[in-house]
Amino acid sequence: MLIELRATNYRSIKGTQTLSLVAGASKELLSENTFDSGLPGFPRLLRSAVIYGANAAGKTNFLRALQFVQSLVLNSTAFQEGARIVHAPFKLSKATTNQPSELEVVFADDGVRYEYGFSVDAERFHKEWLIAYPLGRPQNWFERTYDAKKKKYEWHFSTKLKGSPRMWRDATRGNALFLSTAVQLNSEQLRPIFQWFQKKLVVIGMGGSEFNRLLTFQLLEQPDGKQKLLQFVHAADLGIDDLSVRREPVQVAAVGGNRVREPLSASPVSALARVTSFHKAIDTSESVPLDMGDESHGTRILFESAGAWLNVLKNGEVLLYDELDTSLHPLMTRFLVRLFHNKATNRKNAQLVLTTHDTSLLDREIFRRDQIWFVEKDENRASRVYPLSDFSPRKDESRERGYLKGRYGALPFIGELKV
Fold it and tell me: Is residue 304 part of a domain?
């Protein structure tokens, strides 16, 4: 369960900004759009959050911040000694250009809340910390801070941290995370935190397209996977009656169209999965096969991401989706969002965080006021995120009209073009 994300000095974000999935006191859509977290101090969490804002306002950067944390948790131990870390600070100010970015993720797994974060620049991690709440009370399991004068780290370990923390400390390089290093060296206590980033975060729309296609391909290979996928495409009214997949062992460096690359277990040669869709003919009882590459762009997007959608709902994961409305009809985006708000399709409390320009989703029958967030640039041209609930809109207020009229900000200032 994702609870909060805090980011400072990251891309278009200058000062600390917080995106929260903690439900407010409102009773609107309580049973559909919120769920009981089982956590002390956080009685209910939101099943979804939507972010609006002008182009270049920084909406995507809030999703990128969480993806950035995920990437470093999963990959930092593979960095060579002295290798530079990808550092993307707020570059429109001299005061921040050479300063570390700081990110913190608050989440829960198996009934335990965690606060994990770090500050990082191109050379090293300057801080890293993990606070756990196994009994509802904070336990600072570990913390490290780099002392620039002494050119070494100051470390703190809780007695609650089991295993060999000092051995893990000695093995942790400056450009690697202690969390990742400890798990690599068999810390069973920290493994659930690592696996939350590894298995519970799914990204669509920010460089994960091949991964998403692979999830759909893998679903087709499961005994009942094809039926589940067909149920999804039928519910989405894509006009597809059947699907088939055929492997083509070939040696390629890149893939595109309707093909999904999958490494074969018995051979270094890659396999291309060619997907064919079948549509009913209008004048015969036969089905007409179509190469998936001949389907509409929106159909391909939905098909390629179907495995991710269904996996997230099945496993109770967190899905980050950038620009959900791209090539999709507004009713289709409503269908996808409502999968998370429906207890029958979201039995394990999966969560969706999306960015969009589709203002029809501002309908009060779809989102609560605390689920709607806006991003706009402040006077320093830095991204600022804030919820609709800050404006205390009336329950019967037209949110779409209010947004487009500028009541909530986060709109582009479009000038006149003189030719």
Answer: no
Q: What share of the chain is helix, strand, coil (3-state, %, to 5)?
A: 30, 30, 40
- Residues 31-83 pLDDT 10s: 999 999 999 888 899 999 999 999 999 999 999 999 999 999 999 999 999 99
CATH of the domain at 122: 3.40.50
Below-50 pLDDT ranges, the chain: 251-270
> Is 256 within the bounds of a domain?
no
Q: How many domains does the chain have?
A: 1
Angle, to 10 degrees, between the axis of helix 59-75 and the axis of helix 191-199? 130
pLDDT (tens digit per residue) in 270-280: 456 788 999 98
For residue 344, what are its two tokens? 């029958």
The answer to whether residues 348 and 35 touch, using CB atoms and an 8 Å cutoff, is no
Residue 250 lies in a domain: no
pTM attached to this predicted model: 0.90
Q: At 234, give phi and psi (nearest 5°).
A: -70, -45
Give CA separation, 124 vs 65, 81, 112, 148, 167, in Å.
17, 10, 29, 11, 20
Task: Tell me if 2 is assigned to some domain.
Answer: yes
Give the whole-angstrom CA distance, residue 86 versus residue 90: 13
Q: Give the other-Cβ count within 10 Å of 388's Cβ.
A: 25
Burial string for 245-271 (b: 16+ CB within 10 Å, else e) reads beeeeeeeeebeebbbbbeeeeeeebb
The residues near 407 (Cβ < 8 Å, ≥ 6 apart) are: 391
For residue 141, the enclosing domain spans 1-200+316-419
Map tokens 């999709």 to a residue.
Answer: 328
pLDDT tens track for 113-145: 999 999 999 999 999 999 999 988 999 999 999
The separation between CA 265 and the C-alpha centre of its own chain, rounded to angstroms, equals 29
Residues with Cβ < 8 Å from 123, sequence gap 6 or more?
84, 85, 174, 175
